Amino acid sequence: xxxxxxxxxSCPEPLLMLKNALKTEKGIILLVDSNNALDNCRDYARKNxxxxxxxxxxxxxxxxxxTTK
Length: 69
Prior knowledge:
By secondary structure, this protein is α+β, with helices and mostly antiparallel strands. The chain contains two helices and four strands. It starts with a strand and ends with a strand.
């Protein structure tokens, strides 16, 4: 599973990173540090058929995204 570190980036950068990675990866761990990035990336992945789980550690979020196929 590939890990993408988008902490410190403002939207839409984390979402663009995620979109590009999902073209070739079946599973991704995305690290973000804002609620906005968490919501946008989680919503995008769910709307496109991926399973999504998120964990919180202080002000950081770890989003696990995987294909459901």
